[in-house]
Amino acid sequence: MVNPPGPLIEVVNAEKSYRGVPVVHAISFHVNAGEVVGLIGPNGAGKTTTLRMVTGLAAPSVGTVRLDGHSVVSERGPALKALGTIMEESRFYGYLTGLDNLRQVARMRALASGRASLLGYLEEVGLLQAADRPVREYSLGMRQRLALAVALLVRPKILVLDEPMNGLDPAAIKDLRDRLRQMAADGLAVLLSSHVLSEVEHVCDRVLLLDGGRLVGEERLRGERRDDRPVWLQVEPLDRAADLLREAGWRTERQDQGLVVYIGPDEVPHVIRHLVHHDVAILAVVPDRGGLEARYLAQTGANREVIG
Length: 308
Ligand SMILES: Nc1ncnc2c1ncn2[C@@H]1O[C@H](COP(=O)(O)OP(=O)(O)OP(=O)(O)O)[C@@H](O)[C@H]1O
Description:
Blueprint: E1 9-18, E2 21-31, E3 36-40, H1 47-54, E4 62-67, E5 70-71, H2 76-81, E6 83-86, H3 98-108, H4 115-124, H5 140-152, E7 158-161, H6 170-185, E8 189-194, H7 197-200, E9 206-211, E10 214-220, E11 229-236, H8 238-247, E12 251-255, E13 258-263, H9 268-277, E14 281-287, H10 291-300
Parallel strand pairs: 3-8, 3-9, 6-7, 7-8
Antiparallel strand pairs: 1-2, 1-4, 4-5, 9-10, 11-13, 11-14, 12-13
């Protein structure tokens, strides 16, 4: 079946109040097929509440949420049919194998539970080798992959993940990022939340910044090379340095009487050599500072001193 035109996730003026007090205020956004979108904000920003509205766990007090063109409230069945989720820490039976845990969920939901088909899901998330090991022997990263396999059981068009990177080590984070990118490349719409921007910015095509229950910013990241990191430079003269870097093909932005340049980890010496060669004085080089992270911190009011 061809996807109906339009976004797979569509949130229009959705608002959630508890006992008359709004915790999410009239937010609107969409996620298209093939996109990974991050919902970013500090603790209490309203990320989980928003994802609960998107996944039909909480009805919006006002506004609408449509999945695959269907309202999660009035057309719940078809809307949720398109959806796979990891919404809270997934609980598995430790004494059962990964395969048996998956079978358990599949049976509970009346989904295909044949061994071959379940092994297919485990292979998709890189757990085939561990299929017959009890889950109590799984690392957190492996449990998260098993949770992803569970989310995929319904063959979703949409994946919604609440803080999927939480507690994972860097290797497991990279693994999950790569899998999510692949799933997006296969046409899924992926919406995930995090309170740590740097964890997700490399996997997301766009990020939505949430604070105090409001969307305070949106940033498109597609097109940037994914391994690039912001490096803040204090240089003299500034204009000349900015021109030199731009002419050499590096993306730069002005920030705090300095420049942020987006470069790969190996490129820092090249950038410095290039500037020095053209008689620019380097007064300070601060890696991993600037760009989106700084704007995020500024916008959400957290850690203002970082950019101050
Ligand atoms: N069921 C509820 N009843 C009343 N208030 C709630 C309820 N659920 C959430 N809230 C409030 O809504 C606000 C947003 O909470 P939410 O869990 O959505 O934030 P979050 O961005 O996911 O935060 P965290 O990163 O800490 O999980 C908080 O102030 C929270 O106390």
